Amino acid sequence: MPTSWQDTVIDDIHAGKRIGDQYIVDMIRDAVLSQRLPPGTRLPEATLGEIFGVSRSVVRKALTRLVADHVVVQQPNQVARVASPDIEETKEIFAARRLVEGEVAALLAGKLSPAQHKELQRIIAEEHDAHQQGDEARRVKCSLAVHRYLADQSPNRVLGNMLADLILRTSIVIALYKRAGMEACYLDHDHADLLNLLESGSPQQACDRMRQHLSDLEALLDLRPQEGRIDLAAILGGVA
């Protein structure tokens, strides 16, 4: 197990991974999705360059891509920050996700292949196991995996791509506004219930249940800004 960000990067180099802008994009996106890198976190080019051992031009290219994906915001001549949506934007993101993911659920209802059902069942079982063991990082990863799998399997690829973007943006607002002790996207039995409806329910039932799931999650948020001191090297090195 790596004990520092340097060890993480060295291990990846030995594994044949290229430490370029894509690597930085993936690391920062993963840290945001897992809610280890909170909204509003400053991302200085010099600091990121030291963490990843690359030039500032490579870091700048990665940040430009993250801005385009709504993960990072950056004003001219200012340090980039992890996106920090305000309350109104948070509501708009959830409203958009209800529309899109509800439709994706309706399209998939009654049409899951045995392989798709088995994979969703596996992810949900692992999520429940992580919850029982108190492994929050693994549980969050599994919760996200449920929804990302639905996005990947969407019969309508445009909706699937929209959903993938909204899942990331929703993760950002959950990290920003979740109440202390709140478990992101873990509402007891919700994912298992959704799977049952995707397997045997009507499209409208699956749509309604998905939208209720997202509304219940939104209702758990505490819509007040939160701040904290962030150790970029520890978070991006996987030792937070």
UniProtKB/TrEMBL annotation:
Keywords: DNA-binding, Transcription, Transcription regulation
GO terms, molecular function: DNA binding; DNA-binding transcription factor activity
Keyword Transcription assigned: yes
SMART domains for the chain: FCD, HTH_GNTR
Matches recorded under InterPro entries: GntR_C (IPR011711), TF_FadR/GntR_C (IPR008920), Tscrpt_reg_HTH_GntR (IPR000524), WH-like_DNA-bd_sf (IPR036388), WH_DNA-bd_sf (IPR036390)
Sequence ranges assigned to domain HTH gntR-type in this UniProt record: 18-85
PANTHER family for this protein: HTH-TYPE TRANSCRIPTIONAL REPRESSOR NANR, TRANSCRIPTIONAL REGULATOR, GNTR FAMILY
Official protein name in the record: GntR family transcriptional regulator
The organism of origin for this protein: Modicisalibacter xianhensis
